[in-house]
Amino acid sequence: MFIDEIELFLVRMQLKDPFETSFGVEQDRQCVILRVRSEGLMGWGECVAGDNPGYNYETTGTAWHVLEEFFIPEILGKEIEDIAQYRNMIDRFRGHQLARAGLEMALWDLIGKRDGNSLQKLFGGQNLRVPVGVSVGLQPDEQALLRVVGSFVDEGYQRIKLKIKPNKDIKVVSAVRNAFPEIPIQVDANSAYTLDHVSVFKEMDEFNLILIEQPLAEDDIIDHSRLQKEITTPICLDESILRLRHAQQAIEINACGIINIKPGRVGGLSEAIAIHDYGRSVEIPVWCGGMLETNIGRAANLAVASLPGFVLPGDISASDRYYEEDIAEPNFELNEDSTIDVPQGQGLGISIREKSLKKFTLKREVFKA
Ligand code: OSB
Ligand code: MG
């Protein structure tokens, strides 16, 4: 595939409801959308960096810079036959996994279209539907929390993830546990705690949670392994795992018992598959996380999450949980059994709503071979 042209779009989309985590509130979400043209075909990708470095050090600004100055010049006007070759071409550059992953997604979409295959087929996924849950942001008070969780339960979500932070943890979990005694619950701290908070997590053990996601610092697996020794609920790492080796080392030292795989965070879909394969080989459950993606990124997440090792429900909610209007079709809907169908079209299996994309684009740039 000769890479003729790459186009970047800085996109901002209004979220239906503000999404609050321990690192801040998002009213609208920014991301970088990529379009790669090759021999008459177009591939689309989504880079999940946000407008500020709250989740991860990357931002839409750093991703744009690294794509424009380094990754795009490396592949523009070159022949790329497969993803291994793409990875080799940018291998000498360090970090910037979110930027790397966005470009890789667009290449996967192209490869799927070239070969007439869905991403699911290319990845070897079998399940036609993927079990999913919903991630619930921090709420102003208990009443709002129970109302929001209640409406998601009514919509059919059979697994709830609750965002927590210091002083909004035990109260949050016990309120939801009391109101919904049967529903599977997990929590996500986005690195808001230190080992000084061990007692909070010991208390959490009483609520029968599926997992506790990223309680401690994003750059520290040692303290996570110390915490895991003190509690019975499995720790699940998100921010700390940026590549396969991190997953292997975290498991080796018992820093976690479960891994949240976000293709966007680990440098791309191929690395996500590698972590999945590793998790499966050592019987560590994995699940697919989310970054409030548009339908572009959601299609990619559904394709990887259809692999057999993704045994826990993903943070892949229906399209209508996120935006009033999306930049791509189809809209993904929740089935009655709390699953979402895996796209079956060529590549990502989505098509772009050009008008909506234009409407939400803040900045656009075309790079030609
Ligand atoms: O930590 O999993 C996270 C959204 C943005 C940044 C980080 C996270 C999240 C979510 C939302 O929890 C998951 C989704 O896309 O539904
Ligand atoms: Mg998380």
Strand content: 15-25%
Cross-sheet strand order for the largest sheet:
5-6-7-8-9-10-11
Count the DSSP helices: 12
Q: Look at the structure and name the CATH superfamily of the largest domain.
A: Enolase-like C-terminal domain
Helix and strand element order: EEEHHHHEEHEHEHEHEHEHEHEEEHE
CA(first)-CA(last) distance: 13 Å
CATH class division of the largest domain: Alpha Beta
How confident is the prediction overall: mean pLDDT? 98
Any low-confidence stretches, pLDDT <50, length ≥5? none
Radius of gyration: 20 Å
Helix content: 25-40%
Q: Biggest sheet, in brief?
A: 7 strands, parallel
Find the structural class using helix and strand composition.
Answer: alpha/beta
Question: SSE layout and pairings?
Answer:
Blueprint: E1 5-21, E2 24-38, E3 41-47, H1 60-75, H2 83-89, H3 97-115, H4 119-123, E4 129-131, E5 134-136, H5 142-155, E6 160-163, H6 170-179, E7 185-188, H7 198-204, E8 212-213, H8 222-230, E9 235-237, H9 244-252, E10 258-261, H10 269-281, E11 286-288, H11 295-305, E12 328-329, E13 339-341, E14 351-352, H12 354-360, E15 361-368
Parallel strand pairs: 5-6, 6-7, 7-8, 8-9, 9-10, 10-11
Antiparallel strand pairs: 1-2, 1-15, 2-3, 4-13, 12-14
Helix pairs in contact: 1-3, 5-6
Bound molecules: 2-succinylbenzoate and magnesium ion.
Describe this structure in words.
With 369 residues, the protein is α/β, with parallel strands linked by helices. It folds into two domains: 5-116 and 350-368, 2-Layer Sandwich (Enolase-like, domain 1), CATH 3.30.390.10; 121-341, Enolase-like C-terminal domain (TIM Barrel, Alpha-Beta Barrel), CATH 3.20.20.120. It has helices at 60-75, 83-89, 97-115, 119-123, 142-155, 170-179, 198-204, 222-230, 244-252, 269-281, 295-305, 354-360, and strands at 5-21, 24-38, 41-47, 129-131, 134-136, 160-163, 185-188, 212-213, 235-237, 258-261, 286-288, 328-329, 339-341, 351-352, 361-368. The strands form four sheets. A seven-stranded parallel beta sheet has the order 5-6-7-8-9-10-11. The protein has a four-stranded antiparallel beta sheet with strand order 3-2-1-15. The longest helix is centred in the N-terminal third of the chain and has 19 residues, at 97-115. The relative contact order is 0.17. Residues 55, 135, 188, 190, 238, 289-292, 315, 317 line the site of 2-succinylbenzoate.
